[in-house]
Amino acid sequence: MAKSGVVEGEQTAAADRAMELKRELQKLVKSIADDDGNDVVNLDAIDRAHKTLRCLSELKLNRSGGEAAVPEEFKCPLSLQLMRDPVIIASGQTFDRPFIQKWLKSGNRTCPRTQQVLSHTILTPNHLVRGMIVQWCEMHGIKLPESLEYTNEDGMTEGDKARFVSLLKKVSSVSRLDQRDAAKEFRHLTKRTPSFRSFFGESLDAIPQLLSPLSQTKQDGAEPHPDLREDLITTLLNLSIHDSNKKLVAETPTVIPLLMDALRSGTIETRSNAAATLFTLSALDSNKALIGKSGALKSLIDLLDEGHPSAMKDVTSAIFNLCILLENKVRAVRNGAVPVILKKLESRNHVDELLSILAMLSTSQRAIEEMGELKAVSCLLGIMRETSCARNKENCAAILYNVCYSDRSMLKAMKEEETTYRTISKLAEDGSSRAKRKANGILERMNRGSNNNYTS
Fold first, then answer.
1. Per-residue pLDDT for 153 more than 50?
2. Taking a C-beta distance cutoff of 8 angstroms, is the pair 287, 246 a contact?
3. pLDDT level of residue 6 (50, 70, 90 thresholds)
4. CA-angle at 422, arms to 416 and 424, nearest 5°
5. 276/270 Cα distance (integer angstroms)
6. In this structure, are residues 84 and 145 in contact, taking their beta carbons and an 8 Å threshold?
7. Cα dihedral: 68, 74, 78, 81 (round 10)
8. Burial 158-189 (b: 16+ CB within 10 A, else e)
9. How many helices and strands, by DSSP H and E, does the chain display?
10. Is residue 313 a contact partner of residue 273, using CB atoms and an 8 Å limit?
């Protein structure tokens, strides 16, 4: 019944529109006919009559063949419905406001149509398309409803947005007390309310405003209050956790330099959270390159060298993720990663993570040379004997495989180890498939050189 009522209502509206067009056409025809005695033809009336006649013709056609077909360019790509409030996003595509808002506030940071990562989530009204839609609706006797209001599932309101704007003003004020209060509240809100993080993507100035207290103290050559820095860096970590914010956060010019400062000073929680932020941001390959070029690897390696237990997990995770990119492997070796990692492995600290990093770096000739100078072979063979972790055995074998194929001088230590403990032979017998493959490669290399005269 409801559907029938809607159809009847639409038919009535179309009939009323047709009658209105007919009356307008009659007036225009009469106006044109009355100009018979004039030398100047009423071109404006003729043009309007032509348009009115076309509208009436299309309306009649649509009434006989069903509802007017909405042009594809007037439909929202998400809802597939006629757009009420068309807006343009960063990719240049146009969507209906409530539907693209829902898409963005669900944590998406890509264009639904092109899959392009969005540099920001600012929505710009598309007045041209809106005007064309209004004109089309008038021609077809369709009343365009008001735009729908979107309320997200977390119940974020205009009041929440006002609170966000107020906190930004407060954190960027000259009052140190206001800055600290706002920073603490931002830290709690971005942790407790994930949807609150989306507000930062709606303005290109939001993150610079958030970090303005740290930027200002850096320019002044002073140190920010430890609590203020910790709260702001932790807020940045909360923002970077979601994929929708990673690109925006990393490409904000002040972010990476301030993270590097935080790695070097502040509370250990600040330093650990700065490393964790770089780890989460490095999920994007473009961010890996950006972070690597900034020099942040050196700061991470220095923090790794200090060895704070509460920071080790975040630091090793960040270094590993960054070194997936070839040029960052080179930077890590150049910045002293190999001796620092070997020092930690000697004391058997965070063996899993450090072996994974060293296995990646062992493809570098410079890393191999440094391992030879630091007698890494005995350390790695010792770990292979001690550990029950298959992954650690694999990584040790992979590193030793690269070592023995790049530096024959280290084969002697492996041969002596094999004679005494048969460590590599045992791995070739009962290790994982990858470990067996690497172990057999090492044994083959040793056998080839068994008749050579090794020197220390």
1. no
2. yes
3. very low
4. 95
5. 10
6. yes
7. -30
8. eebeeebeebbebbbeeeeebbbbbbbbbbeb
9. 23, 3
10. no
3-state class (DSSP) for residue 249: helix
Closest CA to 114 of 90, 81, 91: 91
Write the secondary structure of 314-361 as one string of H (helix), E (strand) and C (coil). HHHHHHHHHCCCHHHHHHHHHCCHHHHHHHHHHCCCCHHHHHHHHHHH
40, 41, 90, 123, 251 from 37: Cα distances, Å: 9, 10, 58, 55, 71
AA identity, residue 431: G
SS3 sequence of 16-68: HHHHHHHHHHHHHHHHHHHHHHCCCCCHHHHHHHHHHHHHHHHHHHHHHHCCC
Cα 159 from Cα 155, distance rounded (Å): 10
Q: What does the block give as tokens for 63?
A: 């009434």
**What is the percentage of the chain residues whose pLDDT exceeds 70?**
83
Q: Of 182, 257, 166, whose CA–CA distance to 225 is shortest?
A: 182
Least trusted range by pLDDT, from 236-245, 249-258, 351-360, 373-382: 236-245
- SS3 track for 149-182: CCCCCCCCCHHHHHHHHHHHHHHCCCCHHHHHHH
- How big is the chain by its Cα radius of gyration, in Å? 34
230: which 2 tokens? 């910790």
This prediction's pTM: 0.68
> Ranked by mean pLDDT, which of 30-34, 54-58, 199-203, 346-350 comes out on top?
346-350
Better-predicted residue by pLDDT, 407 or 288:
288
In this prediction, residue 202 carries a pLDDT of 76
